[in-house]
Amino acid sequence: MKTDNFFLPTEQEIQKHTISSLSQYWKNKSYLIAKLPIKRTVTNVMPGTPLKLVPILLPDWAKHCGVGNRLLVPAECNPKKYYGNKSDLWKEIDWFLAIFLMLECWHERLWENKFGPIHSYSFKLRGWDKRAWEHAWVNRIGLFLREWAAHTKKKSAEVLFGIQNKTKIKVTHDVDAIKKTWAIRFKQSVFMLFNAFKAAFKGNFLLALEKKKKFFFFFLIMRIGWFLISY
User: Fold this and answer.
1) Which parts of 61-174 fold into alpha helices (H)?
2) Which terminus of the chain is more exposed, N or C, with fewer CB under 10 A?
3) In 3-state terms, what secondary structure has residue 37?
4) What phi and psi values does residue 174 have, to the nearest 5 degrees?
């Protein structure tokens, strides 16, 4: 989803987008997810705000969807004032917003809008909660919502939505860039030069010479080609 401002879409847009994005978990029955009594949070994320996550304890019937019986959600989805039982906190979370913020890398977008591109360097995201990259939290929330809908119908998720297909990873090709910028030129050239020295140190001088040639070719020529992934 493209954004040209710092403001979140409407609640309806967020809900529609997240349900559609995770439709593989509830094929042809997205209306059951839309009917879940999910609390909606009126909030916004300010540019430059680092991502912070909070753990949410899951009910017994959905603990297998979490890690250590918990799911992590952005702090913005957590109610500012909650005095109830922690075991019931999951009922107060805006799960649609949690999916949206992480799925769309919303904090990262706003960070780059304020501080400039990070060029895929996570260390430039100062104060970031590194747990965000340890597990597929968005997918786990999708599985949780699937279980929640099934629980309300007193059925198993497999009976209500069908058996979840096994995960498949399809390897095609990696397109990191379509334009050769100075940042890419410097980054890739350093990698190539490092590999050249590494090969020479191991006594493989022919490989070192080949890497060195690629280094000069890539650094001096403006075109992007197969050599982006050949080093």
Assistant:
1) 95-103, 106-115, 137-152, 157-161
2) N
3) coil
4) -105, 115
Degrees (nearest 5) of the Cα angle 48, 114, 75? 20
**DSSP 8-state symbol, 175:** -
Q: Are residues 116 and 221 in the same domain?
A: no
Residues 150 and 69 in one domain: yes
Containing structural domain, residue 189: 182-228
Per DSSP, the three-state class of 56 is: strand
What are the angstrom distances between the C-alpha of 219 and each of 118, 185, 189, 207?
A: 21, 6, 6, 18
Q: What whole-number distance in Å separates Cα of residue 174 and Cα of residue 22? A: 23
Cβ atoms of 196 and 212 within 8 Å: the answer is yes
Amino acid identity for residue 103 in this structure: L
pTM reported for the whole predicted model: 0.74
Give the total number of structural domains in the chain. 2
Tokens (6 digits) for 12:
């309806």
Q: 143 near 65, Cβ under 8 Å? A: yes
Residue (of 183, 220, 215) closest to 200 by Cα position: 215
Residues 191 and 82 in one domain: no
